[in-house]
């Protein structure tokens, strides 16, 4: 395999079901300049170092023109309604917006919000599994892993659940736009993504104005009316933040739950352990995040100055791809990395990233996955894969099955609350 094929191999759908042999080959050259443009970083310590390096920017406006072509996203800054969200910004703008967004979401200002959702999350999970009664199989994506986090994020933000079909299509288009594809028609792709972002932004803008007039107990109202030491977000910042939370609040969790259940069904001994001991869930979810992370790579990073790493100089403005899933299988960091081991010690994986951009919703995603996998393991009688590998989503960045057909012999009763 020549160096010039790596980027295209990563995004090639033929490798979606099992990209890990490719990553193993790639790690032989920890920092590699691909002939198609980006610098590919594939080893744990190099990725971890760059995620914590203040010289590395997440703002695509710092890419040189040739590198920006690879990102293939519309120029959000050209439209005040489409201002970049905080994961695409650098300090100090990133820090201010993230702090404001954290006020109504978690510690230290709202320390019990996620903890206090546990009962409601458990009821949603139980209700979805109850719907499997009388059936001998289900698609765990369409019937469970998608509706669960979507219901949660709608309730958390205050988005009417009946509007889900609207933002489902918008979210799919926007997320697909984040998937690098040098062969796509850039103009058509940009127009399609921009249209979806504009329609979602108009929807959220109306919802924000409604909360401005009539606040409720939801997180969107708290963002609209919050007035902490960092001040309030502008209307455009509110729209971009709400859009980020709505999309990221379910997209990655769908893949985390689905990848987790697929892994358990491939490891029936671990599935039985979880069935017998729900306390295994916390460490098991951490190992899923290492072994089959929902976010495989971060394709939008660039140096603000020339950076030397692993004997390679990456020039200012060049595109850097951080291959998180490869770093998670780096044998220099994780012994026997291709083995799924829920008892793994010192499991400081890159499944949620690291540094200032570490996943904002990680506490909620962890809790959702723990509850979901525990109840599926406990309540499904003799669950089994009906298709392996299952059909995967096209996206190389957010990797997970598009469908997960599972058969079972019955559904055990839910626990008493």
UniProtKB/TrEMBL annotation:
Pfam families: p450 (PF00067). Signal peptide: none annotated. InterPro entries: Cyt_P450, Cyt_P450_B, Cyt_P450_sf. Belongs to the cytochrome P450 family. PANTHER family: CYTOCHROME P450 YJIB-RELATED, P450, PUTATIVE (EUROFUNG)-RELATED. This is Cytochrome P450. It comes from Streptomyces lonegramiae.
């Amino acid at each position: 395999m020549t160096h010039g094929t790596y980027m295209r191999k990563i995004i090639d759908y033929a490798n979606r079901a099992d990209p890990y042999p490719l990553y193993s080959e790639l790690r032989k050259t920890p920092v590699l300049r691909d002939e198609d443009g980006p610098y590919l970083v594939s080893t744990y310590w190099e990725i971890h170092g760059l995620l914590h390096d203040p010289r590395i920017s997440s703002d695509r406006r710092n890419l040189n023109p040739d590198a920006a072509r690879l990102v293939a996203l519309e120029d959000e800054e050209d439209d005040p309604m489409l201002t970049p969200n905080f994961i695409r910004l650098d300090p100090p703008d990133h820090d201010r917006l993230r702090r404001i967004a954290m006020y109504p979401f978690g510690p230290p200002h709202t320390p019990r919000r996620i903890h206090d959702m546990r009962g409601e999350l458990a009821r949603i999970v139980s209700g979805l599994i109850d719907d499997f009664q009388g059936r001998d199989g289900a698609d765990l994506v369409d019937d469970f892993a998608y509706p669960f986090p979507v219901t949660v994020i709608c309730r958390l933000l205050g988005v009417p659940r009946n509007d889900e079909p609207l933002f489902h299509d918008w979210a799919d288009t926007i997320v697909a736009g984040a998937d690098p594809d040098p062969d796509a028609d850039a103009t058509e792709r940009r127009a399609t993504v921009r249209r979806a972002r504009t329609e979602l932004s108009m929807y959220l803008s109306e919802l924000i104005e409604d909360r401005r007039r009539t606040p409720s107990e939801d997180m969107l109202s708290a963002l609209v009316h919050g007035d902490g030491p960092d001040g309030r977000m502008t209307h455009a910042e509110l729209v971009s933040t709400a859009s980020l939370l709505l999309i990221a609040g379910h997209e990655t969790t769908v893949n985390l739950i689905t990848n987790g259940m697929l892994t358990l069904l491939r490891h029936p001994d671990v599935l039985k352990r979880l069935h017998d001991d729900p306390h295994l869930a916390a460490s098991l979810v951490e190992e899923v995040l290492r072994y089959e992370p929902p976010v495989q790579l971060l394709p939008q990073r660039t140096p603000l100055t020339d950076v030397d790493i692993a004997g390679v100089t990456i020039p200012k403005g060049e595109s850097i791809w951080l291959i998180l899933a490869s770093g998670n299988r780096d044998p220099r960091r994780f012994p026997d990395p291709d083995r799924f081991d829920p008892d793994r010690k010192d499991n400081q994986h890159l499944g949620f990233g690291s540094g200032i951009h570490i996943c904002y919703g990680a506490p909620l995603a962890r809790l959702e996955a723990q509850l979901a996998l525990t109840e599926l393991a406990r309540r499904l009688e003799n669950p089994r894969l009906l298709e392996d590998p299952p059909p995967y989503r096209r996206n190389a960045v957010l990797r997970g099955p598009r469908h997960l057909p599972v058969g079972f012999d019955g559904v055990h009763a839910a626990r008493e609350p």
